[in-house]
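seq as requested:
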Amino acid sequence: MATTTKTKKANSGITAEEKAAMRELVKERRRNASAAEEAAEVLEKINAMPPSDRAMAKKVHAIIKSAAPELAPKTWYGMPAYYKDGKVICYFQDAAKFKSRYATLGFSDAATLDDGAVWPIAYAVSELNAADEARISALVKKAAR
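struct tokens:
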């Protein structure tokens, strides 16, 4: 009987990292935190990242705050995210979060990035230079409209 339970868990298709992210979301939804507390938690999550992800997350956070100060920082599935009118506009997923090869800057359907019939909603981020930072700033400005 124990083997059957173990097999079902192993074959559920949901990784331990995904389960942890879902637990984080449940905590986020139950919490009744102030905007200042939510912003502080985003910085705590960034500071807890591995060094290479942390450096990129800090830069991305600064770019987003500068490009669209109206976006409110708040965690989403335990990741730094930026909200407008209660909806996630964009988020930063560190590479370590799901054991990925690169970090991701993602945008939700609430972001106004529409460009014809097909457009990207997530970008791999492996390093940042001045041109990348300018591109992220422009994307965030457009997304926050």
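Residues 1-9 have pLDDT under 50 and may be disordered.
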